[in-house]
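Sequence in, structure out. Go.
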Amino acid sequence: IAGVVALVGYGISLYLTGLGSVLQGDAKALITTPLSIIAPFFLVIGCMLLFLRVFPLLLRLASHIAARGRGAVAMLAFAQVSRSPRQPLRMTMLLALSIAFTLFTLVYMATQAQHIQDIVTYQAGADFSGDIPNNASLGSNAISNANSHDPTTLIQHYSAVPGVVSASAGFVGQGTAGNAALPIILRAVDANTFGSTVIWSVEKDHQTTNVLLKELASKQQSAVKTLLIPAIVDTTTMQRLHLKVGSTFKLKVDNQVVSIVQGIVVGSVSHVPTVNDRTTQFGTQGFMSVGGILVDYKTYLNVNLQVAKASGVSSFAQLNMPTVNHVWLRSRDDAASLGSIRTTINKPGLTLQNIVDRRALLATLNADPPYLILSGILRIGTVTALFLALLGNLLASWLTARTRLGNFAVMRALGTSPSRVASILMWEQAIVYVIGLLLGVAFGALLSATVIPSLTLSSLNTNLSSAQFFDLQTAFPTPIVVPPTLPLALVVLIAIYVVALLMMVRVVSRPSLGQTLRLNED
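Output:
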């Protein structure tokens, strides 16, 4: 029944998830997430109940097969376990559940930590970034119209800040692209420095985009002649506008005199760094998924200027050309460098607004109360369950061995060597521990693969509406991360099992025959 309930829950969850845009973000999160978390537990319970039915049959089958063999040790061990399977079943289930939740906790902690890193990398895109105020100044000189269109000047000043490894600057804006008017976020950047300054969430994109950025920089002159701006677009834009390399598209940018220009696709990436294409508040349209477009700033500026001149506006001062309004910084990791940068970007001269500090954001998300509470509960519960399970199994094994000392003594009196007696007990305990370990790993893998993607929390440390928060929970994929400490944990468990076996062997291998077989103890 539990298995059927789990399958029905999974079916409903998959059906509701497949509805897509029919359900709003809060409805999807409130309905599918609980089903995705609860259903696997029913499935595990169903598997346990099935195992309780099948285990005695498997033991009898194994005993029958062992009886056909030449050795008597395995036959006696399987015969003893199959004759009274209740105690081995209890020990096996206790071990399996404790191991399953231990593996689940380890995988959850590693997955959540990596998920936080991915969110921070997605939101920040660089170690530091911020908007340039309209009245900002470089040194003692205010930014004039001339150098506000020259990212090289800004890059030189910010690169001179102690602790900065590289800097880049450019224009950020919003608009639409294509005949479908797809909402997009535009990044017109310095193509020579942007690739080495920002953080790419996908290593493949980092390698590919370095070549594409060089291509953007090399086509500055030809773009002015053709009035086609070379652009790198993200996967969303490629799919929504049905573009391919070499396709042209219309680009309309808000709040610009030259609002419409033409672009040509030179390549695509999974995600343009610093472009928040999943949780963007786009004008009056609310929270929505948008596309990202990356172009060279000088090319974009010169094409805008040529289009404006062709429209009859010849005075550069009269043009509301896109100005450099954003800076990205890559920094060193030491505390002195970080302190220097944080102080400098808040001083007059190099002041930035709406600063995004990647490391500060990472520290904030790692201290998120729901994450800390859930992690603490899982840690305490797992350690307690594992300790009690191991202690209970050790005590149960010891008591079982003590109560059967008479049987073992009789076997020795009939000529069975102490090593064979010890081997029988080792076979009995190994059946319990090996099956418990295998079931625990299987249940742990099942829970990790099905529960963790729904249990992982996503937060951006910003004031989000309820709809934005619930949409955010499904905006970021959650790949399962296997921690490097997992094999070590399994080795420790196996070592504990070996120690327990040695203890039980010591109990039964050296009993005093005279004392054990005394008449007054029969």
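Check: Residues 136-146 have pLDDT under 50 and may be disordered. The first strand starts at residue 128 and ends at 131.
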